[in-house]
Amino acid sequence: MSKHTITLTVNGQEQTHEVDARLLLVHFIRENLNLTGTHIGCDSTSCGACTVHLNGRAVKSCTVFAVQANGKSVETIEALAAAGNLHPLQEGFWEKHGLQCGYCTPGMIMSAKDLLEKNPDPTEEEIRWAISGNLCRCTGYNKIVEAIQYAAEKLREKEPVA
Amino acid sequence: MTYHQEGAAYQLEDRFEHHSAKPDNASAQVETQDEVRVTTPPDVCGMGHRMKRKEDPRFIQGRGRYVDDIKLPGMLYMDIVRSPYAHAKILDIDASAALEMEGVVAVITGKDLEQHGLHWMPTLMSDTQMVLPTEKVVYYAQEVAVVIATERYIAADAIEQVFVDYEPLDPVVDPFEAMEDKVIVRDDKETKTNRIWHWEAGDKEATDKIFDEAAHVVKQTMHIPRIHVSSIETCGMVSDYNKPMEKFTIYMTSQAPHAHRTVFALVSGIPEHKIQVISPDIGGGFGGKVPVYPGYVCCIVASLLLGRPVKWIEDRSENLQADSFARDYHITAEMAADKNGKIVGLRVNTLADNGCADAAANPSKFPAGMYSICTGSYDMKAAHVNVDAVYTTKPPGGVAYRCSFRVTEAVHMIERMADIMAHDLGVDPAEYRMNNFIRADQFPYKSPTGWEYDSGNYHGALRKAMDMIGYEALRQEQAEKRARGELMGIGISSFTEVVGAGPSRDYDILGVKMFDSAEIRIHPTGKAIARFGTKSQGQGHETTYAQIVAEELGLPAKDIEVEEGDTDTAPYGLGTYASRSTPTAGAAAAMAARKIKAKAKKIAAYLLEVGEDDLEWNINKWQVKGSPEQAKTIQDIAFAAYTNNPPGMEPGLEATDYYDPPNLTFPFGSYICVVDIDSGTGEVKVRRFVAVDDCGNIINPLIVEGQVHGGLTMGLAPALYEEIVYDENGQCLTGTFADYLVPTAVESPKWETGHTITPSPHHPIGAKGVGESPTVGAPPAIANAVVDALWHLGVRHIDIPITPQKVWQALRENGVMD
Fold it and tell me: Residue B203 phi/psi, 5° resolution?
């Protein structure tokens, strides 16, 4: 198994690691970096529990090799409240009961964050399509949609759309 | 609880002192209300408040702790070699190549387990199931051997290097063929037959007589297909055997940690106090984390043999292909009505495909669980139910999919039959239900199959649902659309649920009675910890249990820490499934709090220098009647319990309660679904769905809404999308999320919910349980809506899941399309 040295930025911190060529990014995040907020729910890129941001875009980290993150920046759920305040999405999920078992929640939040960065004022249908790569078995999605609408509004109040 | 006062011993006999209803009053007629009852201010946050969940801060910040997040020093990883055949003899297992790989520590086979007598294990229904096979495999993806290695990736590589020599045998895929006993699945048993049991409920003679004399009879066969819970977290374990202490610490995806500890002790002979089962945060359960799977047993054995912690985490494909399944009932039902169209009788024959073991999760005296609740919400004279169960070469069936006790199968059948009868008689399905419901004044209602329904108001729930959706206008719209050739359907389901297992006379797990428990300790500073024998998997127990205690004692819910899942610290309980937590442990929470309140009264009387009879309770304090400024809050009393307790009284303020419910609870509801069908593709679109649930008194409306939404989506799923499918060789064709279609946010409609409140007369806080109701009630509403759209074309029934292909086929067969 060939080893590779990768240098990447994880949640704002640059770091260098030696990894196997075949190591999946999700295992790198969970096992090597001990950031266990990112979860695994399937083996076919279907469930989205492992969603993180790679260079600012949502990706399913079970389908990216760690070596592909070399030179890039990775953001995980653990970074969202780093400054001590909850991100509006985290507030929204709490306020609107957008989670139950919590297992899909980090991936769901990271997908929603990607949506709101691209589209600050999405329609309900746009929200539903944006999280259609993230499976939730507990909530029936209604309250997740409400949570994202709540966050979108909060974010627009902070930075009004031109 | 006993304590001493001035030399005399007092026994707190009257644990029901503050009871609204005595527990022997198992059923009674109760009034239905619309408004959620709130008696405490927001800072106390007792029952009825929409409290934000106390558990959420860790989950939204990625700080939950699930089994796969646990990493111990020196931990090894286990992976499983699985069978590529549904039925085959094992001739040889050669693990030498795997054992030569760097990093591989051990390979364990059935022969190894046999030396410890652990190659078979009991199921929840007292049948047996293989842990690892010694002779043959009986389902595709069955566990054949396990590999333990230093790294997860090495273990995964090594299972490819274990070579198993199989001699394929004929599979038994069709349960009707299984009845013929041409190929025997379980030849380990003395009796060479695939038939497991035959069970009957109701009065056959009376029912047959009613059918002989009936004016109208309708008959329908239907299949309630095999489905899988697919919680987003799969199953897993970290087993840590500490050799010097001879103690196991087992982190496990368990909905029933205490029951699992007892089962492990009974099966292995390891003393029960040397097994600590910890069920940490659980990523969804829905019943799939009730059974003991072979992987768990192998993981424990591996840590025992190697003296090191061993982790096992399933892949999704393993979870979908090999873990236990739900449903798989083949039903032939007949309904009889008199000349006025009134339902008079029901006759049901059922074949249950239980797979290779009777591992059903309906631990009761009834092999088909609560299936005989199948007369549903309708008053009728007689009913008779037959069920035969057979073995097939499939993984064990009969566990839950958000309902384990066969209520879903029963409700689907009766709600389809009521609709077929209504359509056949040319009566509107809503009107037909109204004419046949058990009336509110008939409760407590004794059903023809022997159930005593505690309370209900079926007319009220259906009327409310009809008003919410605008039923009459929808029927008009449907008529107009039909005239234009458009396909629109309206479906109703008015279900009766039965939850809260259960009274110990009928419900037990391997003999352990199905009570549940609560232990509350109030700290000197007026904060508290409450521990329970149940285990939340997302239901929000950390919030709702705190609200129950807050309601009873006036301690702010935010000041009460709720803990579950650690068998070394929590009181014994049977776990969380079958909507039983609120009916059992929720009741125990109220009862334990009432014991504390009774002791608090004695302390308050001592502190205020008055007699107990002079005191009255007011939200969070005992106050002197007529002089409310003379009062002691629960916090004052807690401090006194540790610092200034009455002479002769035991210090401290805590209580435990084990609650064995006097009856089950009977939540109910009426759902109405509107579908539009594309006559070109057969695609069904759920346009609207109104759900009115009655789960008795509501602890937290926000959480109840969440439970209902989630349950509705888990009802939509088998109605339109999900099915575990096998080919003729017994190979599972739906082993990934690419084939097994869990609904996304796009398929899931915007649910519209409402409630009526008919409190349970026997539950201490009048609650009933709600998690399962929507999964039970939703599928027939959707199926009825589809058939309602197509009935005029000659379509009487379509089996779920109602795929576009099935609808398209039905349209073609009835000449709608070429």
Answer: -115, 105
